[in-house]
Model the fold of this input.
Amino acid sequence: MTPAAQVQTSIELLDTIIASARAKGAPADRILADWFRNNRFAGSKDRRAIRALVYAAIRACGPVPASGRAAMLRLAETDGDIRPLFDGSNYGPAPIGEGEAVAEGGVAPAWLVERLRGSAVDDAEAAALLERAPLDLRVNTLKAERATLTLPEPFETTAAPQGLRLPTGTLVEQWPAFREGAVEVQDTGSQLACAALAARPGETVVDLCAGGGGKTLALAAAMDNQGRLIASDTDRGRLSRLAPRAERAGATNIETVLLDPQREMEALQPFAGQADAVLIDAPCSGTGTWRRNPEARWRLDEGELARLCAIQARLLDLAVGLVRPGGRIVYVTCSLLDEEGADQFAGFLARHRQLAMRELALPLGRAHGQGVRLSPSRDGTDGFFIACAG
Done:
């Protein structure tokens, strides 16, 4: 493909991504993967170039663009190599018209920028949410140790006890260490969220929103496969992906429990009042993960945010019925919005006065409300709010 054809293909893909974001449909990475699978004529260099163009254009736009072309024109204002490619050549984009509409730049839609500012996220910190993220790994101590692990490429250690960092785009999936379960892909902030729970061998631990099991596997390693680790979720598809991951990781103390939305306690009743620790990695807006999912800014609206906040409050209340007297609840969101973090946790403690905030001693982050905030600009991690009660 010519560079102009790569730009035009990226514009067409952006049209699909924009429409999907408005409809809360498939995410950008899935749309790209489907296109690459169905268009084998695009070679590896073409795929890399198209992916880079699409994500650069997404990051360049604040509010949802009117079209993929408008988004690409926004990118062309800061990337001088793109503008000349609007040349009308075969398979390339048409020439730029006089006064043609260009998408608006910025960090996010205006209402969301105001919510971030109201949550003590300054403009520099907000801008860092759109930078490209490095690749972080967690050494799986069921199979390896960070001090003795060797990998095909050099790495840095991170503040997480078993954290490693490699450059953006490093392809680890074919490495023997990955295939054999010695390492897992996991952001350092996510690793520290697991460390905040301080799961110990022999305990009963509930991962209430386990999803695909990334944090569950970290907890299994911390417990050294001793004790009961209950991984629960309402999403059958995501939860089903945990079993093969656990087998690869050598995690043997995990029990999966599929939950019925709004009736979660029915399936969790056997564990009522039994858990030493409950981890709530709650569904949230994902504002802290825009480095990896920048089009998520376009999917969020005030109604969706309110819906997520209601779910978070209900999950926090649900955890109270699971934890034993003297046990601990750790609440985590990958969001920098206070209504999902500090304010949500404060409301929880106000509703359950038998519980109190517990201090967290994490190697990164700063105090925020009654918890800890991690952010890309200050800590080099995804954005998180982490708090503990007991």
Residues 3-22 form the longest helix (20 residues). Residues 185-389 form a domain with the Rossmann fold fold (CATH 3.40.50.150). The mean pLDDT is 96. The two ends are 59 Å apart (CA to CA).
